[in-house]
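User: tokens in, sequence out, please.
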């Protein structure tokens, strides 16, 4: 665990990759906050320090989740939909999160696996 990063937020914790990442982050000693639309989709033994029920498209929910965080893990996915429209939706979502948290957090641009930036 990084000495400077102790508290992390995970966006996308109930997806396939998120469900694998959450226990790894907790086991590594991080205090993990997750933002989920439906808390029942988290495993009963999830051990997240804090669960915020809300929507990543809601500015207040994102800001509430980011309070007190040193870092953020964004694993927002499109399930099995690998269409160009689905990837474009992911970029729009990340762009909205950048606007909502930009004063505090700086996000690196990302490329979904095996794709190019949608036009």
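Assistant: Sequence out:
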């Amino acid at each position: 665990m990084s000495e400077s990063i102790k508290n992390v937020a995970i966006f996308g914790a109930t997806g396939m990759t998120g469900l694998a990442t959450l226990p790894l982050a907790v086991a590594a000693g991080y205090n993990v906050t997750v933002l989920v639309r439906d808390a029942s989709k988290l495993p009963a033994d999830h051990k997240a320090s804090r669960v915020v029920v809300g929507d990543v498209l809601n500015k207040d929910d994102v800001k509430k989740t980011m309070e007190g965080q040193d870092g953020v893990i964004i694993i927002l996915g499109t399930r099995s939909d690998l269409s160009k429209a689905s990837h474009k939706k992911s970029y729009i979502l990340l762009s909205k999160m950048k606007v909502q948290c930009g004063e505090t957090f700086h996000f690196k641009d990302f490329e979904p696996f095996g794709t190019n930036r949608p036009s």
